[in-house]
Amino acid sequence: MNTELSWGSKVMRIFGKDKTAALGITIIIVTALVAIFADWLSPYGPNSAADTAQRLAMPGTAGHLFGTDDQGRDILSRIIYGTRTSLFSSIVPVVISAVVSMCLGIIAGFFQGRIGNSLMRIMDVFFAFPSVLLAIAIAAILGPGLLNVCIAMVIVRIPYMTRIVYTDTIQEMQKEYVEASRAYGMGRAAVMFREIMPNVLPSLIVYSATLCGVTIVTVAGLSFIGLGVQPPTADWGLMASEGQNVLMQGDPYVTLFPGLAIIILAFAFSTLGDWLRDLLDPTQK
Amino acid sequence: MNMIEKTDSQDPVLNIEHLTTKIKISSGEVSVIEDINLKLNKGEIMVVVGESGSGKSMTINSIMQLIPKKLLKGYEGSIKLDQSDLLTMNDRDKWKLRGNKISLVTQNAMTSLDPSYRVGKQIVEIILASQHVSKADAKGKTIDLLKKMGIEDPERIYQSYPHQLSGGLRQRVIIAMALSCNPEIIIADEPTSALDPTVQLQVLDLLKDVNRNFGTTILMITHDFGVVSYMADKVVVMYAGQIVETGLAKDVINDPQHPYTKSLLKCIPDLKWIYSNSNNNTSLFNIPGEVPDLTKKITGCRFAARCFKAVAQCSQIQPELKKVNALSSENNMEHLSRCIFAKED
Amino acid sequence: MYKYIISRLLYVIPVLIGVTILVFLMIHLIPGDPAQTILGGEATKSALAKLRSQMGLDQPLIIQYFDWLKKIITGNLGFSYTLHMNIASELLPKFWNSIILTLASLVIAIILGVGSGVLSAIYKGSIFDKVFMAISSIGASIPVFWIALMLMWLLALQYPIFPINGMVNMRGNGGPLDLLYHLVLPAFATSLVSVAVIAQLTRNAVLDEIKKDYVSFFKSFNLSKVHINIFHVLRNALPPIINIIGLQVGYIIGGALFSEIVFSWPGVGQAMYTAISSKDYPMIQAGILLIACGFVFVNLIVDIINIMINPKLHESVSK
User: Fold this and answer.
1) Interface predicted TM-score (ipTM) of this complex, two decimals
2) For chain A, give me the number of helices (H) and strands (E)?
């Protein structure tokens, strides 16, 4: 219907219509800005606990909007600094696995036959594991740390993303343009990455955005088990986990706020995914 | 098989008077059909004909009370089924009539059966819902019905899923479902438009048989004048939510009074031609222009913009339905036309 | 239909082989000597040598795999050098406890998720629909461990309605009611995310069905709305709903790991948590193998149900 509309006005139109998406995208932009300008925005350093008298201050205490944790560190400041690890550990693994999956999926879909089948059968084995369990297993083998968690997330996401690219590629392969470009004498690699890739990219982008949200939650879970970011780094999952002991004593705030931060950012990514789906592929909805 | 006499001595089975249906739209409301009057006696076949947007579907949706509450603004007038007015009846009573007195044969034979159940079970379900019979009796009745629908191996069809049947067979099953509770009147919504031309004729023949053998009154809508001449006792031509011409089918076909009817008839000169062409019927319309947007106010005749006979007066005064000189001597059905040029009685 | 079920059953074999290979390789992928990894840094040379020959580490990898597989099949899940006990006797009872928690969570997720999804679809646009869908779009992003902690704080500490942890009351005489009482919080915490996801997808699936032609055709008969919604709309929306439930089983199994840790539920998750912090790799390996096999089995059931409810896969009626 709106094919004659320019790309920009199309974006604005959907943006204006979909208030949830507008909210989600705003949250992501604000989070990114907070991560960049954390040093200026944060009232305290992430680990400054000079004031030991201020341990476990309640939210709303002067100077500590969200209160302090059991070491007297300001929770708001740690949440502000936590945007860095959260954004990093959600976006980077997803982007890497998207790139890898794009190659694997297109190759498997293009050559189908023996290469494609055996590649996809290997992927099937990964589907036999609940993804959280697989992430835990890999992270447990590699040992704790942010980098290892990211590697674990990359390995866990690849099968899912590859399958999406693979099924899309197979659909594209049946279309005429692929045959036509082969007939023109275009090389295999050129057909795969110049002709097919732009057509399978949209659904991968949509899925990636959604996966960023899921990944934040999973990474937080790994931190909770002790496999993720190590103390004293400010990380939302770790903070929520560290609040456990205090929570048993009746103070939920150390866990509450970082958890809310995780939920808000994850929610924002999932609305981004929905919005991109409407934008790039209106037929799918 | 006994022929049931078509008589007019009794009260009409379906009597619609001054029916107006209003639908909610973003800018208020719109009357999708306006001042519709229809009278159907027992055993008659009435065909409502018009393009899409003419209001014919809205007419049957009003009769079947299938307009979603969210969309419906309200009705005016009356829809009397055997003397009781559907529009003043409570939901429970209305609901009891469904299937028992009045039932629907839908347009989309391919998609109107539940894909998850064997077709026999679906008919049994309808029978059990309104009749106090045992399951075994319902099954027997179903097989019997399928046989009456001209299906050769009813046992096999009973055990089939919809996706295993052809469109024509599915439409027969749908007609069997509609008949399963012995309704007095069947409303058929373009029952053949989704079918192959050769199958269309078979289904029309089946409906004629049903009308003759069961005495079922049929109200059918179509956009195809070929169907009118093949089936109808009475015809109603609708345009933009109004009746523009109505009368006995032979009168209207032999002596059409409204330019719209004439155009429609010109589109479809010969029934045989339709069935020897596999073209989609919708392409047969070649009247220039489109049905007007009812949400905008129209003064004068609604067809004026597309009419070959239109004069200045047409777009100023809205013509009333007026009686025209009927050809046939039967005077139980007046021939009416909504055109200033119609020859008066 | 049986043709499809049998081929699906046969498909389990290569998947299980793949799973065992992957789990087997786990320990061998860790850089360094597996015996060293298992026994830890302070192990004596003689202990290392003993373990090496015990595990057959001097053998080629493929022989090691088949030896290991033979043991697994006979129910020998290996030996925990941290706990100094047979893993099977430690883990199998816990696996059973995990199944209880997982099944309870699954039942909650299905009842609440499908129920509210159907109601939302039927009353589309109502306040219930809007509020519930807003909640579930956020609910799908909640970390299980966080909601578990919050539920524990609210309903076990602040308002001590439910027990803080454990599976049975150690001092009471137990019984199914006591188990149920201990099950409430962990099961709800585990299922909430899935409730949200299942509800959203059920709503979409039902909305897709509700506008189909056969629904309006059936409405033209005197069948009640409830009857049509249950036996026709919901029946036809089942395949996508069952698919999403199948996918959610994976999330519920993963979520149960966290709930077990928070509520000290004596299951595989908790055992693995302890094993991870003490680097008890044979235990981790066995836990992952058990859960993965369970998941393969659940997926099999889901697929078989899907085959059974799809009339297009039924034998065509003989002429």
Assistant:
1) 0.86
2) 12, 0
